[in-house]
Amino acid sequence: MPTDEGGTTRTRLERDLTSLTGRRFDLLVVGGGIVGSCVARDAARRGLDVALIDRDDFSSGTSAASSKLVHGGVRYLRRFQLALVREALRERQRWATNAPHLVRPMPFLLPLLDDPVGRLERRAFLDLYELLAVGGPRVKDRDQRAPRHRIVPADTALRMEPALGRLARDGALVYYDYQAESPERLGLECVMDAVAHGAAVANHIAMTGGLRGPSGRLEGVLAEDRIGGDTLEVRARLIVNATGPWSDRAADLLGLPQQVAVHRSKGVHLVTRAFLRGFAVALPSRAAHLFAVPWRGRTIVGTTDSRYEGVDERLTVSEHEEADLLLALTRSLPGVAITPDDVVHRYAGLRPLVGALASRGDTYHATRDGRVVVHGASGDVISAVGGKWTTSRLLAERAVDVAEKRLGVALRPCDTATARLPLAPDGPLADHVAAMTTALDVLEEGLRVQLCHTYGTAAPDVLRAGAHDDRLLQRIGPDLPHIPAEAVYARREEMAVLPDDILFRRTSIGPLGGDTATVRRHLEEVLA
Ligand SMILES: Cc1cc2nc3c(=O)[nH]c(=O)nc-3n(C[C@H](O)[C@H](O)[C@H](O)COP(=O)(O)OP(=O)(O)OC[C@H]3O[C@@H](n4cnc5c(N)ncnc54)[C@H](O)[C@@H]3O)c2cc1C
User: Fold this and answer.
1) Which of 62, 91, 301 for mutating ligand 1's site (highest number of atoms within 8 Å of CB)?
2) To test the ligand 1 pocket, which listed residue (66, 181, 381, 497) has its Cβ within 8 A of the most ligand atoms?
3) CA torsion 172→178→181→183, rounded to 10°?
4) What is the 3-state secondary structure (H, E, C) of 30-85?
5) Closest Cα to atom 48, ligand 1: which residue?
6) How many CB atoms lie within 10 A of CB 15?
7) How far is it, in rounded angstroms, from Cα 439 to Cα 214?
């Protein structure tokens, strides 16, 4: 529901379950990860009556477990997946333009090592990478553009990133991709946009089965409210299964034949104290794909890629996985003294991979293409599965194109390629931050910038949520760029139901290492 308070228009997310029942939607999206949120946004913007449910919180599944890169994927060039990379690069540019507060350029350092062939090969791949972006959408804000790659000599590489140590001895390549500071909040902004265009949405609602009419057609789903315990019937002409790595499970629940093989691959990340200055580093390692990326005053180390047979809702990182990743890191960067005590958070996710695997168990080389599949003869369910976080908008566009045909309606053209996210500033990011800093001057400087980036144009609203009590505007814990007012705001305006919704999705308190008993108690007091 759009509200107007103190000059800014924003959309309040209310968890009103009556809005899901008693009406027949055009489209029900099951799964509120980035794919489902993009589908709901696109469909609502094109004029469909849309509902969206997630059994947990929005963007709490795989979409919360990524490396946070918005990228074309340089490594896919080695397998000559040119179309995929080109597509992803275009989508990357779109996110950078439409959500500049949350998606910003990230410089990478790639050590060259004394290997003339490898050096030539790397340069050639980066030339190709940048060439593939040509002709695609151009990022308007100059500060948001990714500069061209260049070679830097050893001493410069070392100065840029002392952590490289002897890996810098033959110089390094500097190239650029993008980082999503909070993929979870980007997903939430897609949900907000869907609501602003009439969608009914609710988190913590699990689809448990199909509702079939007398002819056997699916007429909706049975769902369970995991907060209140009630059972709901949500009716729709068409269902979109956007349950990511659980797509085959959801198809089972709906009694549908499996029409696409979904493989799951587990990926693990560690969040450690910061040991990088500002450059992401791609590291040589026997581990599949080792890198370290600066993130909000910490460093993210990732990742693994191993086939996973389970369908667990919540994945954990085993001691063994953590130890292996730390070992690979310290072998690559012996100068960096990172121990288990420096790990402030660890997380794991399941990649939804579609199609055959190149060889048994080899998920690392499996395609990252996305698929839209129409199920059964009556075609009342569409699955949108696979792809990358970066390409989810495009996968959603394709899914809504198929939905349009299935529903036999003529919709408005898709506009999500150019439409800004609801909290994105209009002009250049620097202007937004400069304009906002006056409005936020009661906060210390580091917090001001962080709030501008995290909440975009809604930053003053967050401040207002804490205006009545000074304590709500102080850092929630040492070294955490968050204030308690954010929790109040998240509860009131952003459908944060459980403490984890606040700690891990609306804010980054949890991933930054702030999920402690003290912080939880503090938040409880604030919310009470
Ligand atoms: C380790 C790792 C690193 C990655 N890094 C990157 C990266 O840097 N860049 C990039 O572009 N991509 C990356 N990806 C890929 C990207 O994260 C995924 O492609 C994307 O998040 C998939 O989104 P999704 O919406 O399909 O799935 P999900 O985010 O998992 O969403 C599915 C949703 O369905 C819900 N659900 C399931 N069953 C039900 C039910 N019965 N009823 C209601 N809801 C249900 C779940 O709760 C979940 O929220 C990475 C993936 C992994 C695992």
Assistant:
1) 62
2) 66
3) -130
4) ECCCHHHHHHHHHHHHCCCCEEEECCCCCCCCHHHCCCCEECCCHHHHHHCCHHHH
5) 61
6) 17
7) 59
Tokens read off for 121: 């090969």
Q: What is the pLDDT of residue 446?
A: 85
Tokens representing residue 241 in the block: 């299964």
User: Which residues does ligand 1 sit against, CB inside 6 Å?
Assistant: 30-36, 53-56, 60-63, 65-69, 206-207, 242-246, 250, 267, 303, 349-352, 387-390
Q: Is the pTM of this model over 0.85?
A: yes
Residue 6: the pLDDT is: 44
Of 145-159, 214-228, 283-297, 418-432, the range with the lowest mean pLDDT is: 283-297
Would you say 494 and 188 are in contact if contact means Cβ atoms under 8 Å apart? yes
Q: Name the strand (E) or helix (H) holding 295.
A: strand 290-295
Instruction: State the Cα–Cα distance between residues 248 and 254, nearest whole angstrom.
Output: 10
The reported pLDDT for the residue numbered 5 is 45
State the DSSP H helix or E strand holding residue 205, giving kind and residue range, or none if neither.
strand 205-212
Q: Give the number of the atom of ligand 1 that is nearest the alpha carbon of residue 384.
A: 26
| pLDDT on residue 11 | 87
Q: How far is the CA of 351 from the centre of ligand 1 (A)?
A: 7
Across 86-100, 370-384, 391-405, 406-420, least confident range:
370-384
The pLDDT, as a whole number, for residue 122 is 87
- Residue 315: phi and psi, rounded to 5, are -100, 145
Amino acid, res. 320: H
